[in-house]
Amino acid sequence: MQLRCASCDQPIRSQNINPNQMIAKCGACHAVFRFSSEDLHDTKASKKKPSPRKRANKKKKAEDKARKLILPDKLQLKQDKDNLQIRWPWRDALAYFLFIFSILWNSVVWTMYPSFSTKSGPISFFPLIHVGLGIGLFYTAIVFFVNSSTVSVRDDRLQILYGPLPWLWYRNKTLATKDILQLSCEQQSGQENGTVVSYKLDAVLSTGTLFSLLTDLEEDHALFLKKTIEDHLNIEERAVRDEYEL
After folding, report:
1. Residues 50-74 pLDDT 10s
2. Is residue 227 within 8 Å of 205, Cβ to Cβ?
3. DSSP label at 176?
């Protein structure tokens, strides 16, 4: 069985195919696309060449499909000639867990707090630690419920924005698009049971340095962001050292 590129119809090498995510990258034209079992071709059957008309129709369909990347789940895309905005919410199963856990934690703490507040000495400060933890857990849950990440390209600037609530570990970033030579997608963390956990997206600047744009990304999100931003800025695909490939 063989997989062919949806853009240029070239065969895809096995090292450029991710069967778990059903994503592939063409080594010839660098197109990134999703595939299904129906896209796999029998190599024996493929020896029979289709008619020129059939090949032309197939190429046209592939080109139409390649013009627009498949939008991964959770990502919201707004794009016109001059502006690009990609947004995704933080809300997931962890947010619901933190919210429920923080409610239970605070209920127990505030129920027991009166019995400790009447005592004197160091023990009277003991429940304050749990009260602080409860407030922190509740705020974290709310942050994951309402916050989102936004990549915005407009007015010759690329911005990474987080909000609406402030979060200590993520800060807004602004970069002039004229300083960007290339984007690089790399594995951020190690492997767990043979599966890479997360990825990061960096910008290769004209000075030769790397500027960290985004971290803790899912695989299809990182590749989609890289390809979409590069296409919007008309950045030619080039090989980057240590860059992640499918």
Report:
1. 555 555 555 455 444 444 568 888 8
2. no
3. E
Sequence-ordered alpha helix ranges (H) in 14-159: 52-67, 93-117, 126-146
Query: Quick one: tokens of 39?
Result: 């896209």
How far apart CA 41 and CA 10 sit, in angstroms, is 12
Residue with tokens 């979060």: 167
Tell me, what DSSP letter sits at residue 49?
P
Going by C-alpha positions, the residue among 168, 164, 160 that lies closest to residue 212 is 160
Distance, in Å, from the CA atom of 50 to the CA atom of 52, rounded to the nearest integer, reads 7
Q: Which two tokens stand for residue 119?
A: 């005592």
Intervals of the chain under pLDDT 50: 43-48, 59, 62-67, 246
> Do 164 and 146 meet the contact criterion of CB atoms below 8 Å apart?
yes
Give burial (CB, 10 Å; 0-12/13-18/19+) of 217: buried
pTM (predicted TM-score): 0.63
